[in-house]
Design brief:
Blueprint lengths: L8 H24 L28 H5 L14 H19 L3 H24 L4 H22 L5 H21 L6 H15 L3 H24 L12 H22 L1
Protein backbone atom coordinates (compact mmCIF):
# COMPACT_ATOMS: atom_id res chain seq x y z
CA UNK A 1 0.00 0.00 0.00
CA UNK A 2 1.34 3.39 -0.91
CA UNK A 3 1.98 6.28 1.46
CA UNK A 4 -1.06 8.01 0.02
CA UNK A 5 -3.20 5.03 0.86
CA UNK A 6 -6.38 3.71 -0.68
CA UNK A 7 -7.89 2.06 2.37
CA UNK A 8 -10.62 4.64 3.15
CA UNK A 9 -13.52 3.96 0.80
CA UNK A 10 -14.29 7.64 0.30
CA UNK A 11 -10.67 8.25 -0.72
CA UNK A 12 -10.78 5.40 -3.22
CA UNK A 13 -14.05 6.71 -4.63
CA UNK A 14 -12.43 10.11 -5.06
CA UNK A 15 -9.64 8.63 -7.17
CA UNK A 16 -12.14 6.60 -9.17
CA UNK A 17 -14.01 9.83 -9.95
CA UNK A 18 -10.75 11.55 -10.87
CA UNK A 19 -9.79 8.63 -13.09
CA UNK A 20 -13.11 8.75 -14.93
CA UNK A 21 -12.74 12.52 -15.41
CA UNK A 22 -9.24 11.92 -16.79
CA UNK A 23 -10.72 9.35 -19.16
CA UNK A 24 -13.23 11.91 -20.39
CA UNK A 25 -10.31 14.29 -20.99
CA UNK A 26 -8.53 11.56 -22.95
CA UNK A 27 -11.51 11.22 -25.30
CA UNK A 28 -11.31 14.97 -25.95
CA UNK A 29 -7.59 14.75 -26.72
CA UNK A 30 -8.10 11.78 -29.03
CA UNK A 31 -10.90 13.52 -30.92
CA UNK A 32 -9.33 16.96 -31.29
CA UNK A 33 -5.52 16.83 -31.22
CA UNK A 34 -5.07 14.78 -34.43
CA UNK A 35 -7.29 17.30 -36.25
CA UNK A 36 -5.29 20.24 -34.94
CA UNK A 37 -8.20 21.56 -32.87
CA UNK A 38 -7.88 23.10 -29.43
CA UNK A 39 -9.17 21.36 -26.34
CA UNK A 40 -11.13 24.38 -25.10
CA UNK A 41 -14.88 24.56 -25.50
CA UNK A 42 -17.78 22.17 -25.01
CA UNK A 43 -17.97 18.85 -26.81
CA UNK A 44 -20.48 18.31 -29.59
CA UNK A 45 -22.25 15.30 -31.02
CA UNK A 46 -20.33 14.16 -34.09
CA UNK A 47 -23.62 13.40 -35.87
CA UNK A 48 -25.86 16.42 -35.27
CA UNK A 49 -23.26 18.91 -33.90
CA UNK A 50 -25.50 19.62 -30.90
CA UNK A 51 -23.52 20.86 -27.89
CA UNK A 52 -23.45 18.17 -25.23
CA UNK A 53 -24.92 19.38 -21.95
CA UNK A 54 -23.20 18.87 -18.61
CA UNK A 55 -25.74 16.25 -17.52
CA UNK A 56 -24.98 14.22 -20.66
CA UNK A 57 -21.23 14.50 -20.21
CA UNK A 58 -20.79 12.56 -16.96
CA UNK A 59 -18.23 9.79 -17.62
CA UNK A 60 -19.80 6.33 -18.13
CA UNK A 61 -22.99 7.25 -16.21
CA UNK A 62 -24.39 9.50 -18.94
CA UNK A 63 -23.68 6.82 -21.53
CA UNK A 64 -25.69 4.30 -19.52
CA UNK A 65 -28.56 6.72 -18.85
CA UNK A 66 -28.79 7.66 -22.53
CA UNK A 67 -28.49 3.97 -23.49
CA UNK A 68 -25.57 4.80 -25.73
CA UNK A 69 -27.43 7.31 -27.91
CA UNK A 70 -27.34 11.06 -28.44
CA UNK A 71 -30.20 12.76 -26.59
CA UNK A 72 -30.90 15.02 -29.59
CA UNK A 73 -30.49 12.90 -32.74
CA UNK A 74 -30.65 9.39 -31.20
CA UNK A 75 -27.60 8.28 -33.21
CA UNK A 76 -25.60 5.59 -31.33
CA UNK A 77 -22.54 6.80 -29.41
CA UNK A 78 -19.41 4.69 -29.85
CA UNK A 79 -18.68 2.31 -26.99
CA UNK A 80 -15.06 3.44 -27.14
CA UNK A 81 -15.92 6.54 -25.08
CA UNK A 82 -16.98 4.77 -21.87
CA UNK A 83 -14.32 2.10 -22.41
CA UNK A 84 -11.63 4.78 -22.61
CA UNK A 85 -12.95 6.36 -19.42
CA UNK A 86 -12.90 3.01 -17.61
CA UNK A 87 -9.36 2.19 -18.76
CA UNK A 88 -8.15 5.62 -17.64
CA UNK A 89 -9.83 5.09 -14.28
CA UNK A 90 -8.05 1.76 -13.86
CA UNK A 91 -4.67 3.26 -14.75
CA UNK A 92 -5.11 6.16 -12.34
CA UNK A 93 -6.14 3.90 -9.46
CA UNK A 94 -3.16 1.60 -10.12
CA UNK A 95 -0.83 4.62 -10.24
CA UNK A 96 -2.10 5.84 -6.87
CA UNK A 97 -1.97 2.42 -5.25
CA UNK A 98 1.48 1.52 -6.54
CA UNK A 99 3.49 4.64 -5.73
CA UNK A 100 4.50 6.48 -2.60
CA UNK A 101 4.43 10.27 -2.34
CA UNK A 102 2.25 12.79 -4.13
CA UNK A 103 4.84 13.83 -6.68
CA UNK A 104 5.56 10.28 -7.81
CA UNK A 105 1.84 9.48 -7.95
CA UNK A 106 1.25 12.62 -10.00
CA UNK A 107 4.06 11.65 -12.38
CA UNK A 108 2.50 8.25 -13.05
CA UNK A 109 -1.02 9.66 -13.34
CA UNK A 110 0.22 12.12 -15.97
CA UNK A 111 2.14 9.38 -17.75
CA UNK A 112 -0.89 7.07 -17.67
CA UNK A 113 -3.42 9.63 -18.90
CA UNK A 114 -1.37 11.23 -21.68
CA UNK A 115 0.15 7.85 -22.52
CA UNK A 116 -3.32 6.39 -23.02
CA UNK A 117 -4.24 9.29 -25.31
CA UNK A 118 -1.04 8.82 -27.33
CA UNK A 119 -1.59 5.07 -27.60
CA UNK A 120 -5.13 5.47 -28.93
CA UNK A 121 -4.11 8.20 -31.38
CA UNK A 122 -1.20 6.11 -32.65
CA UNK A 123 -3.48 3.11 -33.18
CA UNK A 124 -5.96 5.25 -35.11
CA UNK A 125 -3.64 7.49 -37.12
CA UNK A 126 -0.18 5.84 -36.96
CA UNK A 127 1.36 8.99 -35.57
CA UNK A 128 2.21 10.56 -32.23
CA UNK A 129 1.35 14.30 -32.22
CA UNK A 130 4.19 16.62 -31.23
CA UNK A 131 1.89 18.58 -28.92
CA UNK A 132 1.19 15.56 -26.72
CA UNK A 133 4.72 14.10 -26.71
CA UNK A 134 6.09 17.53 -25.80
CA UNK A 135 3.60 18.08 -22.96
CA UNK A 136 4.22 14.56 -21.69
CA UNK A 137 7.95 15.22 -21.46
CA UNK A 138 7.53 18.62 -19.79
CA UNK A 139 5.02 17.37 -17.20
CA UNK A 140 7.04 14.25 -16.39
CA UNK A 141 10.15 16.40 -16.00
CA UNK A 142 8.30 18.77 -13.65
CA UNK A 143 6.79 16.02 -11.48
CA UNK A 144 10.00 14.00 -11.28
CA UNK A 145 11.88 17.19 -10.35
CA UNK A 146 9.26 17.90 -7.71
CA UNK A 147 9.84 14.47 -6.16
CA UNK A 148 13.61 14.97 -6.28
CA UNK A 149 13.35 18.30 -4.45
CA UNK A 150 10.67 17.21 -1.98
CA UNK A 151 12.41 14.01 -0.96
CA UNK A 152 16.04 15.06 -1.47
CA UNK A 153 16.74 12.41 -4.11
CA UNK A 154 19.50 14.37 -5.84
CA UNK A 155 21.41 11.11 -6.24
CA UNK A 156 18.85 10.06 -8.88
CA UNK A 157 19.29 13.06 -11.15
CA UNK A 158 22.23 11.60 -13.07
CA UNK A 159 20.55 8.27 -13.82
CA UNK A 160 17.29 9.99 -14.80
CA UNK A 161 18.96 12.32 -17.29
CA UNK A 162 21.27 9.64 -18.71
CA UNK A 163 18.37 7.19 -19.14
CA UNK A 164 16.24 9.72 -21.00
CA UNK A 165 19.11 10.75 -23.26
CA UNK A 166 20.27 7.19 -23.91
CA UNK A 167 16.81 5.87 -24.79
CA UNK A 168 16.18 8.83 -27.09
CA UNK A 169 19.48 8.22 -28.90
CA UNK A 170 18.70 4.50 -29.14
CA UNK A 171 15.36 5.10 -30.84
CA UNK A 172 16.85 7.83 -33.03
CA UNK A 173 19.42 5.33 -34.31
CA UNK A 174 16.62 2.85 -34.95
CA UNK A 175 14.81 5.57 -36.89
CA UNK A 176 17.87 6.01 -39.11
CA UNK A 177 18.59 2.30 -39.53
CA UNK A 178 14.95 1.46 -40.27
CA UNK A 179 14.76 4.35 -42.77
CA UNK A 180 11.69 5.78 -41.12
CA UNK A 181 10.16 2.46 -40.08
CA UNK A 182 10.57 3.68 -36.53
CA UNK A 183 8.97 7.12 -36.52
CA UNK A 184 10.29 10.32 -34.95
CA UNK A 185 7.20 10.33 -32.73
CA UNK A 186 8.54 7.15 -31.14
CA UNK A 187 11.89 8.88 -30.62
CA UNK A 188 10.23 11.79 -28.81
CA UNK A 189 8.12 9.42 -26.73
CA UNK A 190 11.28 7.55 -25.71
CA UNK A 191 12.56 10.70 -23.97
CA UNK A 192 9.61 10.65 -21.55
CA UNK A 193 9.78 6.90 -21.00
CA UNK A 194 13.50 7.12 -20.25
CA UNK A 195 12.78 9.95 -17.83
CA UNK A 196 10.13 8.23 -15.73
CA UNK A 197 11.71 4.76 -15.77
CA UNK A 198 15.22 6.12 -15.28
CA UNK A 199 14.03 7.81 -12.11
CA UNK A 200 13.25 4.34 -10.77
CA UNK A 201 16.52 2.74 -11.91
CA UNK A 202 18.45 1.84 -15.03
CA UNK A 203 17.18 -1.74 -14.94
CA UNK A 204 13.59 -0.55 -15.40
CA UNK A 205 14.59 1.26 -18.59
CA UNK A 206 16.13 -1.92 -20.00
CA UNK A 207 13.16 -4.07 -18.96
CA UNK A 208 10.61 -1.58 -20.32
CA UNK A 209 12.43 -1.35 -23.66
CA UNK A 210 12.81 -5.12 -23.93
CA UNK A 211 9.13 -5.77 -23.28
CA UNK A 212 8.10 -3.08 -25.74
CA UNK A 213 9.91 -5.01 -28.48
CA UNK A 214 8.72 -8.34 -27.06
CA UNK A 215 5.08 -7.25 -27.24
CA UNK A 216 5.68 -5.88 -30.74
CA UNK A 217 7.23 -9.14 -31.98
CA UNK A 218 4.48 -11.24 -30.42
CA UNK A 219 1.68 -9.17 -31.94
CA UNK A 220 3.39 -9.12 -35.34
CA UNK A 221 3.76 -12.90 -35.38
CA UNK A 222 0.14 -13.41 -34.32
CA UNK A 223 -1.16 -10.99 -36.94
CA UNK A 224 0.87 -12.64 -39.70
CA UNK A 225 -0.21 -16.10 -38.53
CA UNK A 226 -3.86 -15.08 -38.76
CA UNK A 227 -3.40 -13.36 -42.13
CA UNK A 228 -4.11 -9.88 -40.75
CA UNK A 229 -0.65 -8.57 -41.60
CA UNK A 230 2.40 -9.20 -43.77
CA UNK A 231 6.09 -8.51 -43.22
CA UNK A 232 5.59 -5.08 -44.79
CA UNK A 233 2.65 -4.10 -42.57
CA UNK A 234 3.51 -1.23 -40.26
CA UNK A 235 2.32 -1.72 -36.70
CA UNK A 236 2.07 1.38 -34.44
CA UNK A 237 4.92 1.02 -31.96
CA UNK A 238 3.99 3.80 -29.55
CA UNK A 239 1.35 1.75 -27.68
CA UNK A 240 3.85 -1.11 -27.30
CA UNK A 241 6.52 1.23 -25.94
CA UNK A 242 4.02 2.56 -23.42
CA UNK A 243 2.85 -0.93 -22.45
CA UNK A 244 6.45 -1.97 -21.85
CA UNK A 245 6.97 1.11 -19.69
CA UNK A 246 3.81 0.39 -17.67
CA UNK A 247 4.82 -3.18 -16.78
CA UNK A 248 8.50 -2.41 -16.15
CA UNK A 249 8.18 -1.17 -12.54
CA UNK A 250 6.41 -4.38 -11.51
CA UNK A 251 8.48 -6.85 -13.54
CA UNK A 252 11.94 -5.39 -12.95
CA UNK A 253 12.37 -6.44 -9.28
CA UNK A 254 11.36 -10.02 -10.11
CA UNK A 255 13.63 -10.25 -13.15
CA UNK A 256 16.57 -8.77 -11.26
CA UNK A 257 16.03 -11.29 -8.46
CA UNK A 258 15.93 -14.17 -10.96
CA UNK A 259 18.97 -13.22 -13.05
CA UNK A 260 21.16 -11.57 -10.41
Amino acid sequence: MSAIGLAPHNFLLSWIAIGLACGSFVTVLVARIPEGRGIQGRSQCISCNETISARDNIPVISYLILKGKCRNCKVPISIRYPLTELVAMGLVVVAVQSNEGWWKVLAWVVFSVLGLALAIIDLQTHRLPNALTAWLFVLIAVTVSGDILANHHSDKIKMTVISSFALTVFYFLLNILSRGGMGMGDVKLAASIGLILGYINGSSVIVGTFFGFFFGSTISVLMMATGRATRKTQIPFGPLMLLGAFVAPWLTPHLVAIFL
